[in-house]
Design goal:
Helices cover about 40% and strands about 15% of the residues. It is an alpha/beta fold and about 300 residues long. It has a single domain, classed as 3-Layer(aba) Sandwich (Rossmann fold), CATH 3.40.50.1820.
Length: about 300
């Protein structure tokens, strides 16, 4: 346990989250500034491509790739972010698994509120299947809002009659637009990145006039998860969204879905991004990679 590392990282992150009063353009610009310095591991190369009618970033290992495809979904509260801002996480999984990734540049709110991004995930997944990729060779992975999309995208794909991917990996997922988890209150002081005012504002851009209890907005509260593939959820105890992960895992187990709830103490939102600064970040990615290697088949 790296107590000193965790305390230094917590101090560095406080005050760097998105502001409640910034314009959408400022939010996006500042998010890029926050994410740009984060480490991207060596051993991968990237190229621009497209998937399901949306831009995407193809990330592959420098060595002979393993079979399979990771469909990666970046974080950013459904309002900010891109495949580039999530490159450290995407590449971190690629170098550890050897499995190439396609990181999807899905549509963002407020220009494209819910369910635009969920639809983009389903369309991208459908194209992979149409290209001849077996569902057992595909895994969904994502962080924060993208972690939520791994679940809601799979639910929407299931409801559309598509076969399920091999696995889902969700880092610090946002899974409850109703904001009824106790950790929203109990972890407010501990969370160095998120605050309630900013969460509510970003959520309002995304949800717009939709019912927040919609299963594709709040799967941790209302979704029937029956039929989903094995899920790994990683989260830290210093997160306001901690109960999103805990309730999703319980709901998944109640639906007879294989689920691993992986909780790391005293680390922040999407702590896996901070490899080189936090030992637990690389260790968590190692566990996620093992989970994927055990389930993704060519």
């Amino acid at each position: 346990m790296s107590t000193d590392q965790r305390e230094r990282l917590d101090a560095q992150l406080r005050g760097t989250g998105v502001g409640a009063e910034q314009s959408v353009a400022e939010l996006r610009e500042n998010f890029v500034k926050l994410m740009d310095p984060l480490p991207v591991p060596e051993g991968t190369h990237t190229r621009e491509t497209s998937l399901g009618g949306r831009p995407a970033l193809h990330v592959s290992p420098d060595t002979e790739p393993a079979s399979g495809t990771l469909l990666y979904l970046h974080g950013g509260s459904h309002v900010v972010g891109s495949p580039r801002t999530a490159l450290g996480l995407t590449a971190g999984l690629v170098v550890r698994t050897g499995i190439p990734a396609l990181s999807l540049d899905y549509r963002l709110a407020p220009e494209h509120p819910f369910p635009a991004d969920v639809q983009d995930v389903v369309t991208a997944y459908r194209e992979l299947l149409d290209q001849g990729h077996a569902p057992g060779s595909i895994a969904f992975a994502g962080d924060s809002a993208g972690g939520g999309l791994t679940i809601t995208g799979a639910l929407a794909a299931r409801d559309a009659g598509l076969p399920m991917p091999a696995a889902i990996v969700a880092f610090s997922p946002g899974l409850d637009a109703t904001r009824t988890g106790e950790s929203i209150v109990t972890k407010a002081a501990a969370d160095p990145l998120l605050d309630r005012a900013s969460l509510d504002r970003m959520s309002s851009f995304y949800v717009a006039d939709q019912d927040r209890r919609n299963p594709l907005l709040s799967p941790a509260v209302t979704a029937d998860l029956t039929g989903l593939p094995p899920i790994l959820v990683q989260v830290g105890t210093n997160e306001m969204l901690l109960d999103d992960a805990r309730r999703l895992a319980l709901r998944a187990s109640d639906a007879e879905v294989d689920v691993v709830l992986d909780i790391t103490a005293k680390v922040p939102h999407v702590f896996q991004s901070f490899t080189g600064l936090l030992d637990e970040a690389g260790e968590a990615l190692d566990r996620a990679a093992l989970f994927l290697r055990q389930r993704v088949r060519g």
